[in-house]
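Hey, quick one: can you model this chain's 3D structure?
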Amino acid sequence: MKTYRKYFTTGALIWAGCFIVFLFVYMIVLAPQKKSRKQIENQLAEKKQIYNSALKATQEETRIWLNEQIENLRNKLDGFVIDFEDSANLTFDISQIANEKKLDSFSIKGKDTSKDSTDFKYLCENYIDVGFTAAFNQFAAFLNALERHWPVIFVDGFKITRSRRDDPGHKVNMSLTVFVRKRQP
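Sure thing. Here's the predicted structure for all 185 residues.
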C-alpha cells in the first residue's frame, strides 16, 4: 500500500508540475496571441465593411439613393436656416406673432453679432431680444407660435418677472437665436 501511495504522490506531483508549466506557457505564449488574433479579426471586419461600402457606393442604385438622402437633408436644413436677404423680415414676422397673441408693451431689437462665436463657413447666428408684458397663457401661446415658426427660432432663454397683484400681466424678456445663411461671394 505504501508503494501505491508513493506512485500516486509522485504522479500527482508530476501532474501538478506539468499543469503549472503548461499554465505558465499558456500565459506567456498563447494568451497574447489570442488577444492579437481578436484584434486582427476586428480590423479585418472593419476593412470588409469599408470594402463592402465602397463596392456598394459604386452601384448606380446606391448613388441615386444617396443623392435622394442628400436632397432630403438639404430640405431639412432649410427648415432651420433663413437666407441672409430674408433675415430682415424676421423681426417683422415676430412682431406679427406678438400682435396676433395680443402682447402688451412689445419691443424687439437685434443684438450685436460682432462677437459671433460660431466658426461655420456658411452659417451665422442672428440674436434677437424680445420684451413684452403678458399673462402666462399669452406667454405660452407666443412661445408655442415661435417654436412652430419657419425658420426655426431657438429660444436661448427667457426671464419672467412676476407682476404685482393689481397688474394683469407679467414682464417677460426673451433671447432668441436664428441661423442665417451667410452671403456667398
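One thing worth noting: The chain has a mean pLDDT of 84.
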